[in-house]
Specification:
Elements: E1 9-14, H1 24-34, E2 46-51, H2 59-72, E3 76-81, H3 91-100, H4 105-108, E4 118-123, E5 129-133, H5 134-137, E6 141-147, H6 162-167, H7 172-186, H8 188-202, E7 205-213, E8 219-225, H9 230-244, E9 253-258, H10 272-275, E10 291-296, E11 315-317, H11 318-321, H12 326-335, E12 346-348, H13 351-361, E13 372-375, E14 383-387, H14 391-396, E15 400-402
């Protein structure tokens, strides 16, 4: 298709509320005092803190401050990976993933102890063996640290948070495989509830530190909870997290162009809460599709080749396919029981091909008048490019401002679009992302 037939596009900005917790350290101290942790932790106690694979902005601050508190009590804190099969399901891979997040002994102030061995600590009512990493079993106390947010593959009163980390992350690869297998047989909510209950009953969980982030990945809320409070408080934190999410404010879009997908953006590469494509046999697909076709252009380097979620797109760029680590993708997809998300879409040699095939397969008769959205990724949605057909709707949306006029798309001589259209830190906006995995 001739690029002159494609719609001109303009840059808009959404004014999305982003409440922020100014200082998390006093909030942590208040929580430690409320739960009287200083009376429970004794000198010499080994206390393990979970190190997840999510790119949580204040995770390092939380871990470092908590380690300092524990050391003041004479305890021996350490951090252990609690990320299921992520990092290629190897010790070196998981340690490297933590290092990418800035979580290392020098910065945290405590050693990173990492093994993949697990032990059975009990069974659920439906006979599922509950497997937990030996790193956690050997501790006198366990502190679970995680962000509470909507999951990309499951829906329930709890999704991604403290309880899921107990049920999946702390199980290393073996436990994660068991848990995901039973999500499809027993349902996500029931499985997580039963597995986490066994963990809380059998292991010395001291507390949980739950964070909620706004759409700019800054901490909006933080709660230090006793294990007895997890099931009661987490649904309320999930509701708040859902309300703070950014979304694409348009419906009936012919084509969604995504510059990058990856594990640092979402556990599913592209957040299903944005794309509307879940691709998980446990969770029904939405009845209405917001985007008729999706074309994704690249895989983030922080993903280290893990392309789980690429299968939710219709078309992808060759540059993305060439960066896929098939082994890492296979392990993550199989462990999470979502092989559908590892399927490679129709590959395009140029962005012009992706644009063209996307519109043609969406049944667009007049490309110039098509409804097109262009985003950096499914997390950074403050800035969006829209086609001219969406102008009238955009002008009616409260909080939307136009930052540029509608201009023709600029492809280079090989048919590629630029990546530098997105406002960056040098222009006064927020900085690039850190790893943020979920599945």
């Amino acid at each position: 298709m001739d690029s002159s037939l494609l719609p001109p596009m303009a840059l808009i900005r959404q004014n999305i509320p982003a409440p922020e917790l100014e200082d998390i350290k006093p909030r942590l101290d208040e929580g430690f005092a409320r739960l009287k942790l200083a009376q429970k932790v004794k000198p010499g106690h080994k206390v393990v803190l979970t190190g997840g694979s999510r790119g949580i902005t204040d995770m390092l601050t939380v871990l470092r401050h908590t380690v300092g508190f524990l050391r003041s009590l004479g305890a021996q804190p350490y951090v252990s990976p609690a990320m299921g099969s992520h990092g290629g399901a190897t010790v070196s891979g998981q340690n490297r993933l933590l290092a990418h997040l800035g979580i290392c002994e020098e910065k945290v102030g405590a050693p990173i102890i990492s093994h993949m061995e697990t032990k059975e600590i009990g069974r659920t009512s439906f006979g599922l063996p509950v497997l937990i990493g030996e790193d956690f079993i050997q501790a006198d106390w366990i502190i679970v640290v995680n962000r509470v947010k909507p999951h990309t593959s499951y829906r329930g009163k709890v999704e991604s948070g403290l309880l899921k980390m107990l049920a999946v992350g702390m199980g290393k690869r073996n436990g994660a495989e068991q848990s995901h297998a039973h999500f499809s047989r027993r349902g996500f909510e029931k499985a997580v509830d039963e597995i986490s209950s066994v963990v809380i009953e059998k292991l010395p969980v001291l507390c949980g530190i739950a964070l909620v982030e706004n759409h700019l990945k800054r901490t909006a809320a933080l709660e230090v909870l006793s294990p007895e409070e997890f099931a009661e408080k987490e649904p309320k934190l999930l509701a708040r997290a859902r309300n703070l999410m950014a979304r694409v404010p348009f419906n009936q879009v012919d084509l969604l162009i995504v510059d990058e997908m990856g594990k640092n953006v979402s556990g599913s590469g592209m957040d299903s809460n944005v794309t509307g494509r879940i691709y998980n046999q446990v969770t029904p697909e939405p009845t209405r599709h917001q985007f008729r076709r999706i074309y994704v252009r690249d895989l983030t380097p922080q993903s280290e080749g893990n392309a789980l979620g690429v299968g939710t797109a219709d078309f992808c760029a060759r540059r993305l396919v060439e960066k896929i680590d098939r082994e890492k993708t296979r392990i993550n997809c199989v462990t999470a029981a979502v092989p559908e998300k590892g399927r490679i879409p129709i590959m395009c040699d140029s962005d012009l091909e992706g644009f063209t095939y996307g519109l043609l397969s969406a049944g667009v008769v007049e490309p110039y008048s098509s409804r097109v959205i262009w985003i950096k990724n499914t997390l950074d949605l403050e800035y969006i490019k829209i086609s001219e057909a969406l102008e009238a709707e955009a002008q009616e949306i409260k909080g939307v401002a136009f930052l540029s006029p509608f201009e023709p798309l600029t492809f280079d001589h090989t048919g590629q679009l630029p990546f530098d259209w997105f406002p960056n830190q040098e222009k006064g906006f927020f900085s690039p992302l850190s790893p943020d995995t979920d599945s």
